[in-house]
Amino acid sequence: MNEHLDPRRLLSYLFIVGIAVLFALQWGPGSRGCDKPFTRVATEAAATVNGQEIPLQDFRREYANQLAYLREQGNPIPESLARQMGIPKQVLDRLVNTELLAQAAEKEGLLPSDLELRDLIRKNSDFQKEGKFDGERYREVLRDYYRRTDVEYEADLRRRLSAQKLLDLVEAAAVVSDDEVKAKFFKEGNKAQATFVRFQPTMYADKVQAAKPEELAAFQKTHEKEIADYYAANHFLYQQPERVKARHILIKAATEAPQDKKDEAKKKIEGLKKELAAGKDFADLAKQFSEDTGSKESGGDLGFNERSAWVPEFAQAAFSLKPGEVSAPVETKF
């Protein structure tokens, strides 16, 4: 009995137990390992949905795609105006809704099969070469455009497919009764018809004069707290990755067009490149020959864009050029 109460022996036992606990925490299942710090490493996320983070990179890519879509529809807007119109919030809300749907779908076991996932990837024209899926191009586009590994991309795609499955299931099961149709009819029918005119902010963007420095200083002085609060809540909008400013001249040829039509388009764009080499102004040629209605009037100016805002072929060419250089003709799905 006295032997067990020996202070030196008791101290030895405590030391051994302490070493065992430290070993379990550092190298046991789910541990950090010997190369990782004990402190938690903060990660950048645009939002967190039920503990699941929406990466800031995903938000940036979706936001750039939204601005590119507006530009293709003939509504190019600067980022400052896009923020005023609430486009960043719309994009983030869409990502959050998709994440909520994906979580609900996984909870209900609505998961896409490996075959569905494979077919969707193989049908994506971004991953095709000469009309066929190309594994090397697949990994190259994921690396340079999506900035992801194939495992990460396929996991995210699987979750988005799960969200779509849940939506399809809800829509298929939706049933509207006769009473609901009747109530809707009386509600909608008991209204006067009116005509209205819609004024979009983009229609007046070029008519708004820039604020003077003294006006900006006065506004900042009287709205310091509001500015600080807004930045704290939306700081991720102002963290911009690498961007380049580019002009382009687009000559169209349909994907299903005969080869001679494609050769004709290529010959035309190569002729324009020779004129540029001879000293012609890029903006003048773009205004005269470009078939991109969104940028033609501005001399082909696409503004500053991230790599993810363009298709991989175009992005690769734009980001490899030095200031003032003109690339060789680039063929894309557009």
Features:
single chain, 334 residues, mainly alpha, two-stranded antiparallel ribbon, 13 helices, 6 strands, 54% helix, globular, disordered N terminus
Tell me the strand percentage band: 5-15%
**Which stretches of 5+ consecutive residues score pLDDT under 50?**
1-5, 26-42
The counted number of beta strands is 6
**Widest sheet, order of strands:** 1-2
- N→C terminal distance: 87 Å
Describe the sheet with the most strands: 2 strands, antiparallel
In round numbers, the mean pLDDT is 79
Strand/helix succession? HEEHHHHEEHHHHHEHHEH
Helix content: 40-55%
Structural class: mainly alpha
Tell the overall outline. Answer: globular
* Radius of gyration, taken over Cα atoms and rounded to an integer in Å: 28 Å
Number of helices: 13
Can you tell me about this structure?
The protein is built from 13 helices and six strands. It has helices at residues 7-27, 56-72, 79-84, 87-107, 114-123, 135-146, 150-173, 178-189, 213-222, 224-234, 259-277, 282-289, 312-320; strands at 45-49, 52-55, 128-129, 132-133, 243-247, 301-306. The strands form three sheets. The chain has a two-stranded antiparallel sheet with strand order 1-2. Strands 3-4 form a two-stranded antiparallel sheet. A two-stranded antiparallel sheet has the order 5-6. The relative contact order is 0.09. The model is unreliable at 1-5 and 26-42 (pLDDT under 50).
